[in-house]
Amino acid sequence: MLRPSESLRGYALACNNDGRVIHLHPTFGQFLLLLHAFYNMDTNSVELTYNDGSVLTIDCEEVENHYDVTNGQMADLDWLLYNAPMEYASLVLSGEMENYLKGPALHGMED
């Protein structure tokens, strides 16, 4: 399971010509095509499935604890988890989650 304290910036994110997301695995140096991303409510995690059969699991509670999110930020993250888990995963893997959380709230809910 991937936690925010682990090295996430080694993952390169790109889109191929047909718009599908490709990750460059930092250890193996190979490109992996992201086939499927979904939020697993039972484990509070986002699971990413790649073309080689591997699965990367992002622990959402660890992400929330690492960034010490507010209630307003939590509402935004919950919306991403339920409606756009691939975008949530991309924010975590690219290291852009902190910048995203510093931006304006998307749902108007303030602390």
Name its key features.
111 residues; alpha+beta; 5-stranded antiparallel beta sheet; globular
Describe the protein in words:
It is built from 4 helices and 5 strands; from the N terminus they run E-E-E-E-E-H-H-H-H. With 111 residues, it is of the alpha+beta class. The protein has one domain (12-102). Residues 1-17 have low confidence and may be disordered.
Largest sheet: 5 strands, antiparallel
Which shape, going by the Cα principal axes? globular
Rg, nearest Å: 14 Å
Helix content: 25-40%
- What proportion of the residues form beta strands (DSSP E)? 25-35%
Our count of helices gives 4
Number of domains: 1
Q: What is the SS-derived class?
A: alpha+beta
- How far apart the termini lie comes to 31 Å
Going across the major beta sheet, what is the strand order?
1-2-3-4-5
User: What is the succession of H and E elements?
Assistant: EEEEEHHHH
The poorly predicted ranges are 1-17
Mean pLDDT: 76
Number of strands: 5
Helix and strand layout, with pairings?
Elements: E1 12-15, E2 21-24, E3 31-40, E4 45-50, E5 55-59, H1 60-67, H2 71-83, H3 85-94, H4 97-102
Antiparallel strand pairs: 1-2, 2-3, 3-4, 4-5
Helix pairs in contact: 2-3
Q: Summed up, what is this model?
A:
With 111 residues, the chain is of the alpha+beta class.
